[in-house]
Every structure is written in C-alpha cells, then in structure tokens.
Amino acid sequence: MAEPMKIRASMSGDTADIKCLMNHPMETGLRKDAKTGGMVPAHHITNVTATVNGKEVLDAEWGGGISKNPYLAFKVKGAKAGDKVEIKWVDNKGDSNTADTSIS
Amino acid sequence: MNILRRNVLKGAGAAGAVSVAVAAGLMTPTAAFAGWNKAGFESRDLGGAMGSIGGNAAAASGDISVKAPDIAENGAVVPVEITSSIAGTDSIAIIGEKNTMPLIAVFNLSNGAQGYVSTRIKMGSTSNVIAVVKAGGKVYKAHKEVKVTIGGCGG
What we know:
Chain A is mainly beta and 104 residues long. Chain A has one domain: Immunoglobulin-like, CATH 2.60.40. In chain A, 0% of the residues lie in helices and 50% in strands. In chain A, the strands form two sheets. In chain A, strands 4-3-6-7 form a four-stranded antiparallel beta sheet, with no helix packed on it. In chain A, strands 1-2-5 form a three-stranded antiparallel beta sheet, with no helix packed on it. In chain A, a hairpin with a 2-residue loop joins strand 3 (45-52) and strand 4. Chain A is elongated. Chain B has 155 residues and is α+β, with helices and mostly antiparallel strands. Chain B has two domains: 3-52, no CATH class; 59-148, SoxY domain (Immunoglobulin-like). Chain B is 20% helix and 38% strand. Chain B has four helices and nine strands; from the N terminus they run ααααβββββββββ. Chain B has helices spanning 3-11, 14-23, 38-42, 46-52, and strands at residues 59-60, 64-67, 71-72, 78-84, 89-96, 103-109, 113-121, 127-135, 138-148. In chain B, strands 1, 3, 5, 6, 8 and 9 form a six-stranded mixed beta sheet that branches. In chain B, strands 2-4-7 form a three-stranded antiparallel beta sheet, with no helix packed on it. In chain B, a hairpin with a 6-residue loop joins strand 5 (89-96) and strand 6 (103-109). In chain B, helix 1 (3-11) crosses helix 2 (14-23). Classes of the chains: A mainly beta (104), B alpha+beta (155). Chains A and B meet through strand 3, strand 4 and strand 5 of A and strand 6 and strand 7 of B.
C-alpha cells in the first residue's frame, strides 16, 4: 500500500499553481545494495497524470532520474478556485496512488 | 544498429514512436506498458535519449529558462525548474547529459497547462541539465550546467 501523497493547489492571478509531493523510493536499478552487494532492482514511477475537473492537463513519463519522494509543480491557466485537481501515478511494478484537492 | 528502429524513432515523437512500433508488431505491448518510452528511458547514451524524444534536431532557444543550482552538493536531489515562454508549448523533457540513463522525464501539457514544470532530479556528475521543448511541431532546447560534488546515481 502506497503512502499518502501531499497535494496543494492555489490560484495566483488567472493561473492555478499545483504542487505535489509523492512518496516513492525511485530506485533506478543501477544502485548496489550495501549489505548484499547485489543490484537493487528498478522501482520507480513511470507515469503521472493530472486532471482539472476531469480534463487532462498533464501526462508525464518518468525514468529513475527523478529524485526519491518526488516533487512536482506545474501551472494551469484557465482553472478556477473550487476546481477539483486530481494527480495519479503508476510505477513499474503496477502500484499506483491518487490524490485530489480543490483549488483554493 | 538496427536501422529500421532508428528510423522509427527519428520519424515520430516519443509516444508516437512507441505506438507506431507496437502497431507494426516491432514491440510486444508488454514491453511498452502504459505509454512509457522504454527505449528512451533505458537508453544509456545521450544520442539515444535525445533521439527517442525527437530532440536531435532541436534548435537552441533563449525563450526557455532552465533554473537549477550552479553547484549541487547532493546530486541525488537537484531542484530544477523549467519555464518555456514559447507559445503553444506541448511538452517539456528533462535530460541529465552525463547521467547513466540521460532521459529523466517527459511532461506532456494540455488544456491550459503552462510551459512550466518544477521537480527534483538526480545527477550522476557535473554536467548540463538539458530541457527539450516541443511547441507547434518544432523542437527547441536549452541547458544549464550544474556542478555536482556528490553524485546521486549509484553509490
């Protein structure tokens, strides 16, 4: 079970600032385990999608080069206070997590 | 080198290339899950990573700003902010020039999303962070050098 995500969305002028913190180890598959000497298998987020009131605004593909516990911020023009923002991620093991909030 | 594969990758954008390859039966659908540019993300050289997102012909642009620290003490967490003021920015890709796997992320923007993304990336060593922006069918790029004192890939 994935840990909860933090999401925040606020209006600044006519643009919504959307910020999100996800909990994920983001293993590249290139790191060695110090105890066993074996490689730590890749385990990272591959796809992130964001919607505002059900309309897709962001569709991202990620590799292992994004830092552990990823931070993501983006801006959407034309959104209004009260609109519902939803962010979903899927990782290479098929785990996923979703968070939503209303723009304030 | 597989010439057909090169052409497929060159001819189309990242997501397009994958779906074309799947349609042509060149890749099994399981190898290309959920619209993920596997070839690009697993590419170990800059040319392959750039090629997979159609970035080899990108023109340098002053309308893209890549904000990152001059010196990153910890390469595992390098904050990067990319702003494209090119009208109709469709996608922004982030590439770590000397990372083992250079392609870090591709952000496809739609329905009012602005040409702006901010995130944190890993950098293996001192090199350029390259932003590749697609707008109106054209490809642009910009870069900024980040000096890394402790690498963030591997250990």
